[in-house]
């Protein structure tokens, strides 16, 4: 994990990976924030698909923490410079992760092996209604989600429920008082 944190600090000088003001609290704000998902992953998880991986939170941090034989981790990021950062850390730290340079809405559920053992992760990617729209085919293939959401999460859920039938629950974040992890086990557009 130290390799990741050192690379994050070094690369942040050249490209915007995370909010610069959070680098002083990187171990809590980014590493611990990502790793809290480990306790929420369903036991049968075979694949983690991290959407908008950017600076590696939560997907790259999870890949670094997971034991050999654990879930496969796919890091999805459209920005070439951020993909270069992800590749650098995966190579240098020996993380078991695959980087996919593409937009979320172009993901083919069959091509990435999306099924009922797939968990989608995301942090600071898009408002919930937008994120649901981008991932509709993945939910249709059986995926679940564990998404970090900040203080406005209740309004996001309410807005989403105007167009989506959701099975969800919230888990209090262990790192941010007003934040939650939204666990979505089913999402269907109405």
């Amino acid at each position: 994990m130290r390799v990741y944190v050192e690379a994050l600090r070094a690369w942040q000088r050249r490209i915007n990976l995370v909010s610069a003001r959070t680098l002083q609290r990187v171990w809590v704000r980014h590493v611990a924030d990502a790793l809290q998902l480990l306790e929420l992953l369903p036991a049968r998880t075979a694949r983690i698909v991290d959407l908008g991986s950017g600076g590696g939170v939560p997907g790259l941090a999870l890949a670094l923490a997971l034991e050999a034989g654990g879930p496969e981790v796919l890091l999805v990021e459209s920005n070439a410079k951020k993909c270069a950062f992800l590749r650098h850390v995966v190579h240098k730290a020996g993380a078991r992760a695959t980087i996919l340079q593409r937009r979320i809405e172009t993901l083919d559920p069959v091509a990435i092996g999306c099924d009922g053992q797939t968990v989608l992760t995301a942090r600071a990617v898009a408002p919930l209604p937008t994120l649901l729209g981008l991932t509709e085919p993945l939910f249709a293939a059986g995926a679940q989600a564990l998404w970090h959401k900040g203080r406005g999460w209740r309004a996001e859920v309410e807005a989403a429920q105007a167009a989506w039938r959701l099975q969800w629950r919230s888990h209090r974040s262990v790192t941010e008082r007003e934040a939650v992890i939204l666990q979505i086990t089913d999402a269907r557009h109405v």
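The first helix runs from residue 2 to 12. The longest strand covers residues 180-189.
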